[in-house]
Amino acid sequence: MGHIVVEVMPKQEILDPQGKAVVGTLHRLGHAGFTDVRQGKRFTLTVEGPVTSEHLAAAREAASTTLSNPIIEDVVGVYELNEAAAEVSR
């Protein structure tokens, strides 16, 4: 099985109240080195067999039409998740 990751973030000009809350909490917990946090969404799409260019194209289409709201969000990444990266993120 192959995996495709789609990353979506609020547009820079859109207020991110979740990100503001997180940065405030980080500061209260002693992590004052962080000046801003933007919170987005990550989708992991699974396909049968290896990821092909057709899968990636379909994922890009789904990202821009279904997985994100283009008025307030940007799709910032659509890529194949390789096994090494999957192990690191676990």
TrEMBL record:
<keyword id="KW-0067">ATP-binding</keyword>
<keyword id="KW-0436">Ligase</keyword>
<comment type="similarity">
    <text>Belongs to the PurS family.</text>
</comment>
<dbReference type="Pfam" id="PF02700">
    <property type="entry name" value="PurS"/>
</dbReference>
<comment type="pathway">
    <text>Purine metabolism; IMP biosynthesis via de novo pathway; 5-amino-1-(5-phospho-D-ribosyl)imidazole from N(2)-formyl-N(1)-(5-phospho-D-ribosyl)glycinamide: step 1/2.</text>
</comment>
<protein>
    <recommendedName>
        <fullName>Phosphoribosylformylglycinamidine synthase subunit PurS</fullName>
        <ecNumber>6.3.5.3</ecNumber>
    </recommendedName>
</protein>
<keyword id="KW-0547">Nucleotide-binding</keyword>
<dbReference type="InterPro" id="IPR003850">
    <property type="entry name" value="PurS"/>
</dbReference>
<keyword id="KW-0963">Cytoplasm</keyword>
<comment type="subunit">
    <text>Part of the FGAM synthase complex composed of 1 PurL, 1 PurQ and 2 PurS subunits.</text>
</comment>
<dbReference type="InterPro" id="IPR036604">
    <property type="entry name" value="PurS-like_sf"/>
</dbReference>
<comment type="function">
    <text>Part of the phosphoribosylformylglycinamidine synthase complex involved in the purines biosynthetic pathway. Catalyzes the ATP-dependent conversion of formylglycinamide ribonucleotide (FGAR) and glutamine to yield formylglycinamidine ribonucleotide (FGAM) and glutamate. The FGAM synthase complex is composed of three subunits. PurQ produces an ammonia molecule by converting glutamine to glutamate. PurL transfers the ammonia molecule to FGAR to form FGAM in an ATP-dependent manner.</text>
</comment>
<keyword id="KW-0658">Purine biosynthesis</keyword>
